[in-house]
Amino acid sequence: MKVSRAPKIPRDRRNDYSSESAQQRREFLQQQTGEPLEQTGQFSIDPQVLPGNIENFIGIVQMPVGIAGPLHINGEYAQGDFYVPLATTEGTLVASYSRGMRVLNECGGVTTTVVEQFMQRAPAFLFENARQARDFGQWVSDNFSKIAAVAESTSSIARLMHIEQWSVARSRYLRFNYTTGDAAGQNMVSKATLIASEWIKENSPIPCDYLLSGNMDTDKKHSHLNMIHSRGRRVIAEAVLKKDVVKRMLHTDTRMMARAAVMSNTGARIAGAAYNGPHSANGIASLFIATGQDEANVVESHAGHLSHELLDNDDLYMSVTLPSLIVATYGGGTGLPTQKECLNLMDCYGKGKANKLAEIVAATVLAGDISLASAVIAGHWVSSHDRLGRNRP
User: Fold this and answer.
1) CA angle, 372 as apex, 366 and 378 as ends, to 5°?
2) Which residues contact 392 (CB under 8 A, 6 or more apart)?
3) Catalytic: which of 27, 106, 244, 294?
4) Which of 76, 191, 370, 379 is the most buried (most CB within 10 A)?
């Protein structure tokens, strides 16, 4: 077997988060690859703020940020007009979301509702046979309050709300469901569940072993389980599109939009898609990048339902339900300088703001879906990309 002889990436054990260390790595990479990384090496932030966010830092990838809006939201947490930062390299995206926002504003804005919030870790416990696994499950239910006390001792924020259980062969899968305040909470619940699982192993009358994740938490993976049992926040954005506004601003009509929605629902069902609307991931990914969210959570967060109902007066009710929207306004990448600025644009940085951000994300998704759906119906989808986007010669 051939062993790699490539030189190791340079690191400074005393202070690896410095401009000098980053420059040393860029020079090393230039020697190895020939690329000088001149643009990547130009940045305004202090590398000293990066511990806990990245390793082997070399510089900054500059992502264009546009502003969409204003968007009027009638939420429980997001109330008023919001300018929404979207980080993207896709031409027409910001313009399309802004158009959807203008339409929603003309129709009275978006009503948003946060239904619930959970974050999971799902250990799998192993036994000699299925009966032991079944009986262990009953013991867990009987001792829930003790397990919760142990888990919550690791954090001032995490609260264990319930444990779902499934038996498979001679294993018992436990899905711990926590609330995690304004943090996304994956690391928080991992620590809490580890301590709880160790306590369970030591105190269970039935001998067992466990894996901290048996993969039923479906961390950073889409699953139907998360469509039913929320991971992150279940948030709903809804609005009634007035038929005259749709005709004047979107150059189509509500009846055609309703018919197209039925066809899209059928197509999405046949394809097995995680979302039946036009493009929830676009708005979510752009907002995530701008505001320092964990970008891998887009795969869970974009799944959901676009619902519609043609009303008796030919106005069109539309709503977006995102059952597993994972957002944070505290911790992780949210405190980095430019990400913090983007959160501050919406007054969404810090504790007590995560539900507000979730409502803004859902409302933004609804705006984007309305705009793109009507562009497809009216025949403007390709022409708008010709004028503003990637189809330019």
Assistant:
1) 130
2) 91, 386
3) 294
4) 370
Amino acid, single-letter form, for residue 186? Q
Inter-residue contact 345 to 70 (CB < 8 Å): no
Each residue of 221-236: pLDDT tens digit? Answer: 999 999 999 999 999 9
Identify the structural domains of the chain with CATH numbers, from first to last: 15-62 (no CATH), 65-116+232-388 (3.90.770.10), 123-211 (3.30.70.420)
Residue 294 bears catalytic tag? yes
Instruction: Tell me the pLDDT band of 6, cut-offs 50, 70 and 90.
Output: confident
Q: Which of 296, 316, 332, 325 is nearest to 374 (CA)?
A: 316
Which of 162, 222, 305, 385 is an active site residue?
A: 385
The two tokens of residue 77 are 């947490």
Which pair of tokens denotes residue 246?
């749709």
This prediction has a pTM of 0.93
Query: How far are the Cα atoms of 69, 136, 141, 212, 322 from residue 102, in angstroms, in the given order?
Result: 7, 56, 50, 47, 22
Among all chains, which residue has been given the structure tokens 């010709």?
386
* DSSP state string for 47-111: GGG-TTT-SS--------EEEEEEEEEEESS-EEEEEEEEE-S-TTHHHHHHHHHHHHHHTT-EE
**Quick check: helix, strand or coil at residue 357?**
helix
Q: How crowded is the C-beta side of 22, counted as CA atoms within 13 Å?
A: 20
Catalytic residue among 90, 116, 135, 347: 90
308 is catalytic: no
Is 251 in the active site?
no
